[in-house]
Amino acid sequence: MALDTILAGGVSGNKAEVTGGQVHVRPETDAATNPGNIGGVKIYGENDGGDLTGNVLLKSPEIDVDYRMRVSQDLMLDEEVFNYTAQNTGKHSYSNTTMTNAWTAGQLTTNSSSITTITTGTMFSTYAQFPNTGTTTLSADTEVAFSAQPTTNTFIEFGLGLPGTATTAPSDGVFFRLTSAGLQGIASFNGTETSTGAFPLAGGTGTWAYTNNKRYQFIAYMGGVEAQFWVNDGTGAVLLGVIPLPIAQGRICMAAGVPYFFKHRITGGAASGVMQAIVGAYGVRQGGTNQTTIPSTNGNRLYGSYQGLSGGTMGSLANYANSTNPTAAVPTNTTAALGSGLGGQFWETDTLAVTTDGIICSYQVPAGTVNLPGRRLIIRGVKVASFVQTALTGGGYNEQVSLAFGHTAVSLATAESATTKAPRRVPIDIRTVASGATALTKLETLWLDLGDAPIFVNPGEFVAVVKKKVGTAPSAGVIGHVITFVYGWE
């Protein structure tokens, strides 16, 4: 007699179907007619199929006491594509001991001089530090390739943490480490390290290995009580390893704010061969928060506040020299005679004829190229503060100040055509300049608040503050202007 058990409905007589030892189950589909047949079903999502670790990673959603499911979006905290040829000194710190990095089109290359010397190294990191707080998850994505297989005495480390010097191990954080033993994940708590060990292959029969010069996306996740390490080789992301919270620690790392870093060092002896890391890009995200920001705020977070973009002019964009006053000049309608900059100091010889537009300050948004990101300038406000620097001779006029933007050449006479754009104009305000105004007389401050209707200026286009007189032009005298743009990048 067979020992098989057949499951069948007592009323319908329908039998259960079984495949590979698993019973097929279909929950009640007619909840309106048969509400009593609805049972509780546990919901899980598969994060990783266990291809490398051998363990399927499942996570369940979270429901609060008022029946709301927790949902959130990633908040981009930083992003960089190394498609330029010099360090962005406004965003990044770079230190080195003998070994050097090279910024070349499309990548940042460590050990660019191909040395194998002991106690040498390079360290690249962000000036910004990113929060690791509450139940949020901080992650770092790195697109990188390695020129050779692991070599003796060579350490390459990248991720989130306190990187230390160019030749020492990071002192805190969650990061990848490549050594001669292979690639592993590290969680450091004030210098006390916990390692995944070399990432294994499925079944534990070997270690995970990369192909030389192939770009991979490595992702380090730093939570309060867990660190995860993933790789995406272009076919999909797989989990390499996990570090749960060590028993003696309150959090996975001690620091509550950490920069992104990438480090290459040779310690313990000379390297057994030349090795380089070729970094294409990185990104830092915070998950588990619904924080929202306006585009200009988010752009400043990613690309830098009130400074040049990667691949372009470094430092401040304002025309504001240290301990030096501007040279006064007569403004024109076609040139930036007083100087170029996104705001700053400008001294105007106040003799331009009435009813003539004069450019006080002018700035061209960098045009996008393969080496320079094409970002739109978002202007949220403009302030014009002015004073009489040298007493005026004669004059007496009303000053109309406007914002010109969108023109494809510096000249305000640029015509609108199929391939060029004339300036768009937004009035800022009007103020009176008295005849014979004496030196040090402060003029009324003008302010344009664009609120929730900001101005977008495209890559390659110009923006200018422009002045026009109505009345009588002075025959001599100088007006000093200090112009402030409230802006961001998109």
Average pLDDT, rounded to a whole number, is: 87
Terminal CA distance: 75 Å
- Rg result: 31 Å
Can you tell me the residue ranges where pLDDT is under 50 for at least 5 consecutive residues?
none
Shape: globular
The chain-level structural class is mainly beta
* Tally of strands: 30
**Helix segment tally:** 1
State the share of residues found in helices, binned by percent: under 10%
Largest sheet: 8 strands, antiparallel
Oligomer category? single chain
Strand fraction: 35-45%
In a few lines, what is going on in this structure?
The protein is built from 1 helix and 30 strands. It is mostly beta strands.
What does this structure look like?
By secondary structure, the chain is mostly beta strands. Helix content is 2%, strand content 43%. It contains one helix and 30 strands. Strands 5, 7, 8, 11, 16, 17, 18 and 21 form an eight-stranded antiparallel beta sheet that branches. A hairpin with a 2-residue loop joins strand 14 (182-189) and strand 15. It is globular. The model has no long low-confidence stretch (mean pLDDT 87).
Tell me the layout of helices and strands.
Blueprint lengths: L17 E2 L2 E2 L21 E4 L8 E3 L13 E9 L10 E6 L4 E3 L2 E3 L10 E7 L3 E2 L5 E10 L7 E9 L9 E8 L2 E8 L2 E7 L17 E7 L3 E7 L4 E8 L12 E2 L1 E7 L10 E13 L5 H9 L40 E6 L8 E7 L12 E17 L3 E11 L16 E10 L12 E4 L5 E3 L4 E10 L4 E14 L1
